[in-house]
Amino acid sequence: MSSSVISELEYMMPELSYYKDRKIFKKEEIEAIVKKRKKFEEILATKPRLSIFLMYIEYEAILERIYKKRSKKIHKKKNYITKRIDSLYKRAQFAFLDMEDLLISHLEYFISVQDKAKIKETAVEIPRKCTGSFKVWIKCADALRSIGEIEGSRILLQRALRVLPSHKKEIIEEYIRLEEDNEENDSPKIIEILKKQIITES
């Protein structure tokens, strides 16, 4: 067994003790979790394939849903699995640099678990890695808007307009859509300015 696999198994011990002490998972279920994770880690230690990372993440996501269902009555719940999934995404991104779909999937995971702090952190970080992707800028601006980060979303779109001049019309149209769908006091004025820019570009 490689040192990296041993390290991962040691790292999960507090998590497993937590599940056992609070009777969230049965003994045989904990053993199955260890066995499954060990298998994934052994494969990744020899040949880190994207498909294995994605299967590992999906397994942990299913485990997380079971955990949340069983731990509803527990106060001060630990988010071990959320941290583990975040770590797996980061490991995958290190192995497969600047893969757009992987980065967006990471963001979508945080959206699905409603982790506002991580949504903000990830949405700000991703465009730096995929600067030339129109899709990334819009997805991240949309994500920021969804958690009430209005100014952050607007700043991101303003940067996109500077970085992607060839997509200026599409960015402005998406900017208008976000302002219309999530109207603020100053949205009508911003929309008016943006529409004038479209006319100027035509």
Automatic annotation (TrEMBL):
Pfam families: U3_assoc_6
GO cellular component: Pwp2p-containing subcomplex of 90S preribosome; small-subunit processome
Subcellular location: Nucleus, Nucleolus
Main location: nucleus
Keyword presence, Repeat: yes
SUPFAM superfamilies for the chain: TPR-like
U3 small nucleolar RNA-associated protein 6 N-terminal domain segment(s): 9-80
Single GO biological process annotation from the record: maturation of SSU-rRNA from tricistronic rRNA transcript (SSU-rRNA, 5.8S rRNA, LSU-rRNA)
UniProt keyword terms in alphabetical order: Nucleus, Repeat, rRNA processing
GO molecular function, one term: snoRNA binding
Record protein name field: U3 small nucleolar RNA-associated protein 6 N-terminal domain-containing protein
Taxonomic lineage: Eukaryota, Fungi, Fungi incertae sedis, Microsporidia, Nematocida
